[in-house]
Structures are given as structure tokens and as C-alpha cells.
Amino acid sequence: MDSQMMTGNLAAAWGARLADVDYIPAFPITPQTEIVEALAKWCAGGELAARFVTMDSEHSMMTAAGAAEATGARVFTATSSQGLLYAFEVLYSISGWRAPLVLVNVSRALAAPITLESDHNDVLAARDSGFLQIHAETCQEVLDSILMAYRIAEDERVMLPVIVNLDGFSLSFTREPVRIPDPEQVRTFLPPFHPAHLGFRASVPHSLGVAVIGGTPYAYFRHQMHLASINALEVHREVAASFEQLFGRRYDVVEGYRLDDAEDVLVMTNSCAGTGKAAVDAARGEGKRVGLLRLRMIRPWPADAIRGALRGRRAVAVLDQNLAPGQGGILFQEIAASLYHEATRPRALCSFIGGLGGQNLSVGELRAIFEQTAKAGVSGKGIGPVLLYTQAEHREMTQLQMVAAGSVKRET
Amino acid sequence: MYAVRFHGRGGQGAKTASRILGTAAFLSGYQAQDSPIYGAERRGAPVAAFTRFGREPIRERGVIAHPDLVVVADASLLEDPAARVSDGITDQTTLFVNSPLQAEQIRAQSRLRGRITTLDVTEIALQHFGQREAISALLGAVAARLAGLQQESLRQAIARELGDLGVAPPIIERNQTVALTCYGSVQVMERESVTEPATIATTFHIPVYESPSRGTARISATGNSVLRETGGWRTFRPVLVADKCNGCWLCFVYCPDGVIAMNKDDRPVIDYAHCKGCQICVHECPTHALVAEREQEGGVTWTAR
Fold first, then answer.
1. Are A148 and A181 in contact (CB under 8 A)?
2. How many domains does chain A have?
3. In a domain, B303, yes or no
């Protein structure tokens, strides 16, 4: 089947449809709503044999999703930003139940102040919830990652839920060609879901996520979740090979772009990595030895793959599209920790914060990152966190502050 | 530092006793600390509380592994492994048990080490207050005496702690009076400093991954609550006076633990291995056919109502 133009949201809906899910609890939120609208239409039209239920909130939605998954149903749901945070406590229950559903998060910056466009403080807030996290760069990768996510999540060695993340607007509402995999081949790739530890039979009751009231069993079960999550690295490798064999597209836990002889490497995630790759090409055109490492799997943290890609480089820059107030970039901290024990760790680590709330990332800004990173590599002194904030942005901001303060009067 | 561990059942006042002791030590000019630990807050379930005091700042917190003094509010806890009364008790530990039995009888029954002393605090509470729960001040008094604190600090500590619980001043005064009786009655053991065993570094066991059927907090066995006998939670047991029973089944309906079955003559049959002694059946019985009898080592000796 040839490709067709579709948004990241529609690609996500197609992922759920091809995964032949049984149950979809839903609640709308911009920029995710198109996903559940598409699924609602297909459920009504009979293209998808799933039960679609609209809920009263994301908290109820995630509770219903986890409970349904615990009965042995294959469950899909989607949310964004405030919705993810409203459902937050339930995420920990679902991973504790080892209920391997797939949740799509369409990244949107968190209020206050309110904005609708993307950054990653929403999805990264869930990084310790026990959900695995796959962050997609393209609409095609959104669809493919959902299929891979079910296969990884439902593996006996993992049995943990997965968040597949896509950026609001730059993927969710952006159309580009996407190949829709053949449903028969998907059935080969993703067999029916028959979990040994989940299921519902009224005559054979069992309790899930019971109160243990004590640190010893609690510590054991939390640690089992950690081991399960770590297992997902190996399972991802197997699943990626199987996916490539059937569909011809290859996804690894990290993606290296022009890394071979790169002195300096920029680390990015999600859709803006495309802009990063374009900037690498431009810099390479001028003879600069730079490359890009895109983190695709954030949980489990692919430490070995990251170390393999970054050891021996002159300098590494991490571009975080998030900001932990009082700390800095979230991924920068994790990258720095991963490199600490490397004998040949980079001479300088640089932290950049950009693309907050959908703030534009220009090739010029990326060029500035490369220049500052090269300088840091030569001097052996890392920098940051540096906010990517241009002079033009500052002029715009000053104007807005004047309007907000009442200093700009309408001409009469 | 002097470390006191209290063992009791939910509702007996072990936590308040630990606070009375903590406040008494504080008022005596010591550095002091007290804290409870419990799971679901259920009447009758085992609870523990800890009081530390000394001249130096107290750095450790939480469970007391090597107590100088252990106060057991309910002798049935000695038989309940979940209560872990015997943890860290050495020959130097002072062990107080609320029981009508002599120390030697307790030692023979429980095979516990430690220097044992007893007093029937529950009987004293019943005589003075007519109810079994109100023993926090009395336990605090026993602990204060064994820990070497003065009467005046104890008296003030009881007023503060029971006052915080909203107990009326006349009741507080009676508690103070009865507590001082206990203070004077308990056999004092010479305080001996407990030497903590030398610490060796722990050997860790690193768990491996197990399939989710084992590695998830999931219970698939049915009917396993029968394995956890809770009859020891009782201080009083419901007993049927057969000729008063009208066979109305209300006790069966009200029992929160499902331990009352009805026989073919419509008479209740109580599963004493699991009855927690909540007395709801006694309270609800319209014909007073169920009465509460005090549990006592060696047989029932006291009957309420």
C-alpha cells in the first residue's frame, strides 16, 4: 500500500486501529482530540471492533483504561498536557498493576501561563511513573511506534504500559506522507493479547495492586518494575528487528545522525530533531564535524547506547525542550549522569533550553549552538543552561509587556 | 539514650502511652522523641510505638531494634508473630507485660529472654473506669517508673496528652490518680544499660526478574484470610447465652468479619479463631443473648454486664 497524507494525530489513530484494540476510553483536549474523534468515527462505522466510551475526565479515563487492561483487554487512549497531569496518580497504579496499555501523549506546554503548543514538561513529568516512553520524530514513526509499543508492552519480560509521545502542532496537526502497514502483516507482527497475570473470570477472582502495608513487599514489587523496564531495552531490539523485517523501517532506542567522525554532538528528541538534522547538514556543508543523537526511548533510559554514541566526543550539547525550574534541562542531567563514569567522556557538556511552549527553533539558533559548543569543547568548560531567546523575541516580549501594563493606547 | 518500645492493639492506647512517656522525659529535661507505627488503623490490630530519651541529641528515628524496655499492653501479642514483640530482646532488656500472671509464668509460656515484670493493668482499668481501653496513662506510668522518671513529670505529661485528646479534666484527674497507683505498684527492675551487638555490614540479596504472575502485587489464592488467625486481637469474647437467643440472625448480619455462622436451629456459632472481639454483635443483640467475657490467660474470669 502506498503512502497517504495524514496528520500525526491521524497516524496515531491508525496505530490503534491496526493494533486491533478492544477498548478506548476518551476525553478531549487540544491538540489530541483529533485522535479520539477518528477512533470514534471508526468504532461507529464498524471499521474498528472496539468499545469507545467518552468519560467525564482524564482521571476517570485512565482509571477505566487501566481497569479494562487488567481484565485482559487491549486498551488504547490518548491525552495531552493538563489531561496527562490530571490522570497522573492513575499512571502509577496502572504500571503497578503491570497493565500494558498504550497511551499517546500529544505534548503541549503546561499552564500557567496557558499555551497550546508543544514542549516536553508534560510527558517528562511522567518519566518516573513506570510507563515506558517512546518519543517520535515523524508521523510515520508515530504510527509504527504504537505497533511496536504494544508488542514491547505485552511481552512477558516487560508487561509495563507505554507512552508514545508526539509533539503538538508540529506533528499532531502536520500532514506528511505516511505508509499504512498491511493489517495482515500487523497481525503477524502483533499476536493477540493473552496475559498470564491479567484477566477476568467471575468464578476465579483475584486481587491486583493489593495493599501491602510495609516496605519489604513494596520495595520488591517496585524493583520488579525497574527490572521489567530495563528488560524493555533488549525487547525493543528484538521488536525493532522483527518490525524492520516485515515493514522495512528500522527504529532503535537512539538514532545517530552523521555521528561517524563527529567531534561535537547535539542531543535532541521528538520532532524538532528534524530541524536539528537540517542544521547538521548545513554545518557539515561548511566542513564542521558535527552530528546529532536523537533519543527515541526515554524510559527505560538507554544508557549504554547513549554512552556508545557520546564517548570520545570533544563536546556534547543537550537541547532540552523542557525546563525544570531551579534545576535546568531534565535530559541534560540524565545525559551528564550517564557519561560520568566514561574514561573518555566529552571535554565539555553544554545545556540549552529551547522550544518552550512551541517557541520557534530556527536553523540560525542551532548554528549558534554548534558554535558555542565547539568553543566549549576547545576550552574544556561546559556552559548552560542557556535559554534560546533571540533579540527579535525580546523586542516582541517588551511590546507585549507594554500592552499588558496599559502603556500602549489606541489611537483615536 | 534509653529506648522504650510499646506493643499494643489498636485502641489500647500504646501510642498515647509512648507520648506520655516522651512528654514526661521532655518535662524532666531530657532530649526526647516518640513515634508510632501502624498499618490500617483497625481496633485490635497489632501496633507499636517508640520513645527515646537521653542527655545527648537523638539522631536515630523509627523502629527501635535494641530496646532497653519493652512494654506489652496485651499479653496475646506475645503469641502473635506479626507483632514481633521478641525482636532485639536480650537478657538485659526489661520486659513489662500487662497480665494477671506472674513473671515466671510469662517466661515459661513465652520463652522470652529479658527481665520480666507484670501487672494486671487491664483489671485496674476495669475497676476504676469500667472499660478496658483506657490504659494509656497506666501504661505510660508503668513505663515512666521502669525508665526511672519522676512522678511529677508523669502527672503533667498525662494532663497534656489526655488534654490534647479532648479528655475532660475530671477524667484526666482520675487517670492521674490511677496511673500513680500503677507507678507505685509495678515491681522496679534495676536499670541496666543494654549493650548493642556489634554491627556487621549487611549482605544484600539482589532480586532477579520474575514473571508478572509472581512479580506483581496480585493475590490469586482464594479464602486465604483463614490463614491469618485474628482471635488474639480480642480482649473480650462474645459468648452466647443460649436460652435468651430468639434466632433473629441480627448478629450474623452485623458481624463485620463474617465469623458468625448460623446453625440449623438458628443459633449463632462463633469462629473464635478469627473473631476480633469488636463486640458489635453484643451491642446489636436485641435480647442480650450475646455477652462479652474478658479473655484471660487460663480461662474466662471476668464478665461484663
1. no
2. 2
3. no
Residues 6+ apart with CB under 8 A from B273: B229, B230, B231
Q: Binning pLDDT at 50, 70 and 90, where does residue B299 land?
A: very low
- The answer as to whether B118 is a domain residue is yes
DSSP helix, strand, coil percent of chain A (3-state; round to 5): 45, 20, 40
pLDDT band at residue B41, thresholds of 50, 70 and 90?
low
Nearest CA in chain B to A229: B209
Query: Per-residue pLDDT for B135 more than 50?
Result: yes
Q: What is the band of B297 on the pLDDT scale with cuts at 50, 70, 90?
A: low
CA dist A236 and A298 (Å) reads 12
Domain count, chain B: 2
Query: What's the pLDDT band for A19 if we cut at 50, 70, 90?
Result: very high
The C-alpha angle with vertex A14 and arms to A8 and A20, in degrees rounded to 5, equals 150
| In chain A, residues 306-345 whose CB comes closer than 8 Å to chain B | none
Residue B137 C-alpha, separation from nearest chain A C-alpha, in angstroms: 29
Euclidean distance between CA atoms A28 and A6, whole angstroms: 20
Model pLDDT, residue B298? 44
How far apart, in whole angstroms, are the C-alpha atoms of residue A291 and residue B172?
77
| Nearest-CB residue to B209 (from A198, A206, A227) | A227
Hey, is A309 helix, strand or coil? helix
How far off is chain B from A60, nearest CA to CA, in Å? Answer: 22
- Host domain of residue A29: 3-247
CA A318 to chain centre: 16
A45 and A102 share one domain: yes
What residues make up the domain containing B232?
228-294
The ipTM estimated for the assembled molecules is 0.89
Q: Where are the alpha helices (DSSP H) in B202-299?
A: 212-215, 250-254, 280-284
- Quote the CA–CA distance of A32 and B178 in Å, as a whole number: 69
Residue B76: which pLDDT band, with cuts at 50, 70 and 90?
Answer: confident
Asked whether the predicted pLDDT for residue A225 surpasses 80, the reply is yes
What are the distances in angstroms from CA B233 to CA A24, A43, B42, B164? 47, 55, 10, 27
CA angle B51, B54, B56 (to 5 degrees): 130
Give dist(CA A322, CA A114) in Å, integer: 15
Give B39: exposed, middle or buried? Use CB within 10 Å, 0-12, 13-18, 19+: middle
Do residues A82 and A151 share a domain?
yes
| Same domain (yes/no): A231, A313 | no
Whether the per-residue pLDDT at A370 is higher than 50: the answer is yes
